[in-house]
Amino acid sequence: MKREVNRLCNAILPNQISGQGLDLEAAEMSVRSSMHRVGAVFLEKLINADGGGQCGAKIKCDAGHDTKFINCRTKKVVTVLGKINVVRAYHYCSPCQTGVIPKDDLLDIAETQFSPGVRRMMALVGAKESFDAGRDDLKILAGINVTDKDVERISEAIGEGIEVCAKKNRQIVIDSNIICNNVIPLLPKIKNLYAAMDGTGVPATKSETAGRKGKDKSGIAKTREAKLGVIFTQTNLNKEGKPVRDENSTTYTGGIETKEEFGKRIFAEALRRGALRAERFIVLGDGALWIWELTAEYFPKAIQILDFFHAAEYLAALAKIIHADNKVIQDLWLDTQRTELHDGDVENVIDAMKRIEPKGEVVSEELRTTLNYFENNRLRMRYAEYQKQGYFIGSGVMEAGCKTIVGQRLKQSGMRWTVRGANAIIALRCCQMSNQWEDYWENRAAA
Fold it and tell me: Which of 93, 277, 294, 347 could form a disulfide with 61 if both were Cys (CB 3.0 to 4.6 A apart)?
């Protein structure tokens, strides 16, 4: 360490003596690099202080067989301080014909050249930006040199690990449902628990969309739908009497999967968040049939609310086509119907649509579609009643979740995803946005 400090001083001080002044940015980066090298030396000595660990000891493999100590082997590992050599005892299992290295499992470096700290950083940047941008940021911000493929592989591996843990926890929650009923009276009540669901397209590779029908004129699918769910609580109203989400109460879950798989996912998350002890359980959604089918199956007693803004969008589209030639009348009709809808007079809105005399097949089709939408969801549009009770009538948090979790990361220009890769990144982002990132790493270290 003394030699490293002297080297630094010799490199920096001549500039000051010659009158050139100190380049602070260059100096601090140089000091950081040197401290990393010193830290790497210390870390290497600390990790190898055990002489490789379990040398000569009789240990068993995963199958329960006795193994034989062969020798100690060195492995290069990239850490947050730089590359180090890790000495590990190598055992061999004859029945399994495979090597056993307990220290790799202990240090969480089995089958990888990256330390847990580096993998955590890689997953963090991989979840937030493109893999090549993450690679560049790691080099600039942390002095870690990796490839974009490294960032991709590690990010997806961590995301898959998060989803595996989440799936196990979901099953535990569902299996312990009956047991939980005995504990519910001892836990604090939740005033209003909300669940919102939605779907959004993820640009997919051709192999993932083969044989699937698309929505555009070509009829060829270019995306796969990711289903997302959000759970949050609401206790209070603001000064204007509007509902306010409880702070840090929002959790997300989702993936590219079937309706049946997603149903179990959102059901388990709702149970985990306290659905059994909520005074009121409210489901927010747009007009997608699958949302209300899952609600009927898993949350039959829930209050169902159709997102007001989705309904208003239907009215806006209809107004635009029935009064295409007169913007003034178009705006007047739309404002009237929106006000009626917001005040809970959905029957008046439906009657207003029925009085329209469509001109042409295009207008007729748009009118039929909108009428069906309102008639099928009329019981979910009692907005005056919902507002009086202090409920949310819009699923803005779900819309924001779709944009933040999927849109900002998975829909960048030129991106095409496999289902496996997309689900891994969705799991990463849901974990981070649900404030469960630290919990995952703490549990991983404990395990």
Answer: 93
Burial of 390: CB neighbours in 10 Å, binned 0-12, 13-18, 19+: middle
| The residue to which tokens 């600039």 are assigned | 140
Quote the radius of gyration of the chain (alpha carbons, Å).
Answer: 29
Q: Say how many Å lie between the first and final Cα of the chain, rounded.
A: 35
The one-letter code for the residue type at 40 is: A
Helix 24-47 to helix 2-17 angle (10° resolution) is 170
CA distances from 239 to 29, 192, 242, 247, 248 (A): 50, 18, 7, 17, 20
Best CA proximity match to 282, nearest among 403, 397, 405: 397
Helix (H) or strand (E) holding 105: helix 102-107
Q: What is the dihedral of CA 161, 165, 170, 172, to 10 degrees?
A: 150
- Report the distance separating Cα 229 and Cα 167, nearest Å: 15
How, if at all, do strands 98-100 and 82-93 pair? antiparallel
- The residues, any chain, with a CB within 8 Å of residue 298's CB and separated by 6 or more, are 263, 266, 267, 270
Six-digit token pair at 145?
């040199």
Closest CA to 123 of 146, 145, 156, 148: 156
Q: What is the dihedral of CA 142, 145, 146, 147, to 10 degrees?
A: 120
In terms of DSSP bridges, do strands 243-245 and 82-93 run parallel, antiparallel, or are they unpaired? unpaired
Cite the beta strand spans of 118-276 per DSSP E.
Answer: 190-203, 223-237, 243-245, 251-255
Per the structure block, which two tokens stand in for 446?
A: 């404990």
What is the pTM assigned to this prediction?
A: 0.89
Mean pLDDT is lowest, of 101-110, 206-215, 328-337, 416-425, for 206-215
Q: 330-386, pLDDT tens digit by residue?
A: 999 999 999 999 998 999 999 999 999 888 888 899 999 999 999 999 999 999 999
Only one residue has tokens 């270019």, namely 222
Strand order in the sheet with 98-100: 68-79, 82-93, 98-100
